[in-house]
Amino acid sequence: MTQLIRLVSISCVASAAALAALPAPFDQAQGVPSTSRGTQVPESRPMGGKKSVTTFFVTSAGPGRGGDLGGLAGADAHCQALAAAEGSGDHTWRAYVSTSATGGQPAVNARDRIGRGPWYNAEGTLVATDVEDLHRNNKFSKALAVSPRLDPINGVGDTPNMHDILTGSRPDGTAFPPGDDLTCGNWRSSGAGRAQVGHHDRRGQGSGVSSWNSAHASRGCSQQDLVSTGGAGLFYCFAID
Fold this sequence. Notes:
With 241 residues, the protein is of the alpha+beta class. The chain has one domain: Mannose-Binding Protein A, Chain A (Roll), CATH 3.10.100.10. It has 5 helices and 10 strands; from the N terminus they run αβββαβββαβαββαβ. It has helices spanning 2-21, 71-85, 131-136, 184-187, 223-228; strands at 26-27, 32-33, 56-58, 93-95, 119-120, 126-128, 164-166, 196-199, 216-217, 231-239. Strands 3, 4, 7, 8, 9 and 10 form a 6-stranded mixed sheet that branches. Strand 1 (26-27) and strand 2 (32-33) form a beta hairpin. The model is unreliable at 1-31 (pLDDT under 50).
């Protein structure tokens, strides 16, 4: 009997250790999303807190110069201005765009620019718990990836289709290696180059269309080039605080 109890105890300890080693995207008892660090995150946030509930949005409009966003600083400033206009300027905003290594300057990864999360849209609905969740388990859709006013962004089936969202990034949120320009000259070109885009509605034709951040490259970097492949020069904005 003593030997049997000892075997059961060892088995229980081993099972507990195995469970502890598993990733925990959800709290099994409560069904509450958790970050990769195990911190529980609510599925939604109510309005009326100390800071704006909005910590993620798709720009309702681009600067209007195609892939020329004014570099990283210009893209960030555009996010900040749009957020401020809708009462979310109490956060610090960053554009989800990567840049390539050039002129002795290192590449910048979009995933490294946007803080730690969690992020919520203008309705207070959870978009992602953290950076890992965003790139591995994200649940992007047209209904979730909305403007700072909670307006939907046109997607497949709408006229015009504007689901091509500028990122210049690979699926894991990192920059492309030097070579083919997929960042419109690090977001300063409205002519030469191309831009890697994602689909905020995760719909389209061909391979990779379900990727929110790395579906395909644009035809070019002019505003018309972006429009011709289903875009409008829009990009994602994330609050880092």
